[in-house]
Structure prediction request, 391 residues.
Amino acid sequence: MKYSNLVERLQGRRTSAWEIHRVAQQAATRGEDVIVLSVGDPEFATPAPIVDSAVDALRAGDTHYTAMAGREPLRAAIAAEHARATGCDTASANVILTAGAQNGVFAASLCLLEAGDEVIVPEPMYLTYEACVRTAGATLVAVPVDAARAFHVDCDALEAALTPRTKAIFFATPCNPTGVVMPHADLERIGRLACEHDLWVLSDEVYAELTFEREHVSIASLPGMAERTVTLGSLSKSHAMAGWRVGWAIGPAELIEHMGRLALAMLYGLPGFIQQAALTALQHKAEIVAEIRETYRRRRDVVFERLHQVPGLRCLLPEAGMFMMVDVSGTGLDTVDFTWQLFRAKGVAVLDASAFGDTAKGFVRLGLVVDEARLIDACERIAQFVDGLRR
Prediction:
């Protein structure tokens, strides 16, 4: 039998990066002593008010079809949050619910891109961007970001990558995997390029609520950008709701209408009880997000304090999020060997960051996704492993 080559475009080195996570999860299921730091799914449960809201909705019979773009109260709440953050006059018609931000990238790619188009993306980038762009028939143009600059975007390199075929610029701020928060000046530069060359911008802002020192700024807030920006958001990280698959896209109303047609064919609306839980999450945002942000800040500091002293390792202090990039090139191992040997020797699973792009070659991504005691244990195991290599 012959299969469509459309799905073949979704496969590649980036999307195969989770193999070590799959193996680690299997080992954990068997009861083995492993510490899984290879994916962004924290160990703590979704806050009780959110869970209670979903349970109450289920018991009340909220198990029927819902509107394709999402229910009006939830879309209005998301629009209001966006308006407060950007100063834009955002309406619920500018919002559509998605099954997480990844689905938003996929849907936006299909609505914005055509065969022959090019999309500029700073690298390292999230693993599935390339698959989404390729599925639309477009070409992803990766622009390397220098690790020596702590993975901050090189706007000159972005501009140099522009061609007559460039249709859009995609980026994440804060960034997964690097934890970099894009400075206002860089956003302004990208905004000027977008306006001058009539480009779309897709801004993945899933980690916007989890910044530590640098303030997050949405590019949609800049002059001339609201009408050409797709802003993606999610509750997965900020509210410990990864498994609920609640995300959204915000953009021009006409684009949201186009994405609604995809939702009709692909999702047929998110479950009502999950939307009710999401609305509760936004209503309790201030206290929930503050606690989760502080948890990740503490974990970041705990890991950095222990690992940056290990000979052979170089840690980059993330400005946001739940991951830390660690340069392991000083150990003499490439990242594939480092991750697998570490897991087999010490039971600690981290991700080879070069899967996010060749720019991250030599780095692993470590998730701050278990409690502090387990993180300290993981750091000790990593230190012992590295010391064993030196000996």
Summary: The CA atoms of residues 354 and 360 lie 5 Å apart. The chain has a mean pLDDT of 92. The radius of gyration is 21 Å. The chain is about 40% helix and 15% strand.
